[in-house]
Amino acid sequence: MNIFYRKLFLLIPFxxxxxxxxxxxxxxAPDAESNEPLLxxxxxxxxxxxxxxxxxxxxxxxxxTINDVLEYSFFGDDSEALARMQAGVEADLVHPCRSWWxxxxxxxxxxxxxxxxxTNWDGVPDELKELGQFNGEQYFIxxxxxxxxxxxxxxxVQDVPDSWSDLWDPQYEGRVSMIDASxxxxxxxxxxxxxxxxxxxxxxxEAVKQQLIALRPNLLNYWVDYTETYDLPASGDAWVVAxxxxxxxxxxxxxGYDVSYIDPVExxxxxxxxxxxxxxxxxxxxxxxxxNAALDPxxxxxxxxxxxxxxxxxxxxxxxxxxxxxxxNVSDFDSFFNETVFYQPLTExxxxxxxxxxxxxxxxx
Amino acid sequence: xxxxxxxxxHPVTNSRTTNKESAIPRSLLGSLIGPTWIWLVLFMLxxxxxxxxxxxxxxxxxxxEWEFTFENYxxxxxTPSYHRLLLRSVWMAFVVAALSVVAAYPxxxxxxxxxxxxxxxxxxLLIVPAMxxxxxxxxxxxxxxxxxxxxxxxxxxxxxxxEAAPILLYTPTAxxxxxxxxxxxxxALPIAVALNQIEPNLLEAASDLGxxxxxxxxxxxxxxxxxxxxxxxLFVFIPTLGEYVTPALVGGPEGVMIGNIIWDxxxxxxxxxxxxxxxxxxxxxxxxxxGFISLYSKISRERAGNYD
Lengths: 365, 308
Hints:
heterodimer; A: alpha/beta; D-Maltodextrin-Binding Protein, domain 2; 2 domains; two-stranded antiparallel ribbon; 15 helices; about 40% helix; globular; B: mainly alpha; MetI-like fold; 14 helices
């Protein structure tokens, strides 16, 4: 190969890279028009384009053209959503859960919400509104919530547990399926020891770690996917599922299994997710239009009836099935709110600590 | 290693292509391998380099602020659970690879020497299970070993166990069983290819000279099929070391492997630097047997050269 060819040959990859970059740039060139679709960073299974019944006023208005006004980008985990926002995705709306909310606010990834523009805001109880407030501003709109608690096959166990610390009871040896999530594991460990999970000392952290390692003999496995919380108790492999959501209970009772969803003495853990407006959002008017649809009572009731999920607009309660209301325990708001251990926003340091502890627990022998 | 694999699968043709190479214009050859070369640089070398740089950082994003640190290396050295996990993963990968090769050898032997006109059909049958989804094949073991599964039901019926229970499921043994099952066909193929290339004359000569069948096997067949055995071992060992799906589904608390922790570090803990460091450690571990192998193949090539 003569020298000319060799040089030419070396040029090929660079030309290709250059072409590729140019193409990317052209594709992402800012569009001056304001009728650009809303970019929503969302969990899979929530997209209004597929599930119009949870955003009725919006989806009814746009009907067939819904795909022109909404663009979805999906994430499978809260950490992924945060990573994408940090990496500079200019989402109009993002739907993370409460552990992570503080990190978004601290890093300037979201902007305060003008609640006077929310038509259904009065239906949201003040206590829930406050969960989304940071530095005196409303940054997050609580939207969906649920429990993480203990699910038990009554017919397979001798005694039904009534406390998080019962997970350590030797009678469940090898039959406990534990959620594989660092924050939930840490909260369960702390609650079983009587600590406040969000205000622990370094000694308490160490104690939680040892406590979680001590759960090992009782463990069947770590569950990752929520379908495992349906399958494992159904097959009888697991007698006790720690960190199961209430929809697993709904599914298993519908299938005729003898299960109970425990109300532990320390309280059920409550997760909550909600919408925030990205700091670089371009289409603010339509963003509010979408939020108003998300908080629409009928739409919220549809979601509760389909998924057994909790809703934030309590005006939806009369339209929700009786058995869902009973499972969610929302007929008396005060007792519901006070007995539930709602996730607190984590600091970056706590987040790293929790994952380090959980990784060491899983890696320990 | 690619050179090695090439040599394993085409030991005869390989020496010929070396002579033929001059027949193809080099410039044409260059443009033919061009796409592969670009692919390697863009999707292999560059990402590797980025990952290596990542191990000296404290966070995954914000490359503008660059703080060079050995903090991750310190943490890695100070965390004995990582070392144990690495060791256990290497051990499990070794067991899976060794068992796969041992189980695959007779299959390969039959395919190569006994199958006759059924050979192609047998190879097809070997490959057919691999056409269904990997995940499905792993989940199938959950059903076989589970408490309402085949094994538990049979043992319960025979009165060997007195309550329905998962048998071996959610243990490292379940990971090993599942992976041997998954990899067995892949291990059999390179061995069958190697066996197939043994000159029948050699076997006839051995029996003419009075060698017993087992002596023929030990002194002729086995040594000549070693390249296939080693290729099969690596085919299984390397992907098994990085496994995280199978341990997550059937491994239970004791069956966690380093791949699970790496996945966690990247996808959930957002600790990309530590994930990168663990990946690098794993890569080094893979390179050690690969290095031995290339040394071995070099020696055996030289030895073969002496016989010529």
